[in-house]
Amino acid sequence: MKPKLTSELKDALEKRKIRKEKKPTFRRQEWFRYKRLGECWRRPKGLHSKMRKGLKYRPPRVKIGYRGPKLARNLHPSGFEEVMVYRVEDLEKINPERQAARIGGTVGTRKRIEIVKRADELGIRVLNRGEL
């Protein structure tokens, strides 16, 4: 199942994909120096911090310019809008042309099988189908 995409939306998804490849991995300041520091991003706040000042020999900082196109935001790479599903009844509210279901992590195996079966009947794509 594929979503019905406009040409503008297709272009936006393609541009987002290209931008994502070029985007650097943002790491915490001096993540390599101390084992206790994780790699995940923290804004540098030090008074004399070279990274905060944005000196060229320091790693890049998170900025608004790395953001993707507005049309492609909050969409799955396939172009579907993701909708969380916890019950079989939640599938009735989904538009199969633009939206796809993502089954919640707290849903058990029995209910997951019911959701997948009903989604197949309605022609709705399940993004995290698994191996049921």
Q: State the shape.
A: elongated
Alpha plus pi helix count: 3
Number of strands: 2
- Uncertain regions: pLDDT < 50 for 5+ in a row? none
Give the helix proportion (percent range).
Answer: 25-40%
Order of H and E elements? HHEEH
Main sheet summary: 2 strands, parallel
Radius of gyration: 20 Å
**Lateral arrangement of strands in the main beta sheet:** 1-2
Report strand %. 5-15%
- How many individual domains? 2
Structural class: alpha+beta
C-alpha termini separation: 18 Å
Outline:
The protein is α+β, with helices and mostly antiparallel strands. Helix content is 26%, strand content 8%. It folds into two domains: 7-19 and 26-71, no CATH class; 72-132, no CATH class.
Q: Could you characterize what this model shows?
A:
The chain starts with 6 loop residues before the first helix and ends in a 10-residue tail after the last helix. Helices cover 26% and strands 8% of the residues. The protein has a two-stranded parallel ribbon. The chain has three helices and two strands; from the N terminus they run ααββα. It is an alpha+beta fold and 132 residues long.
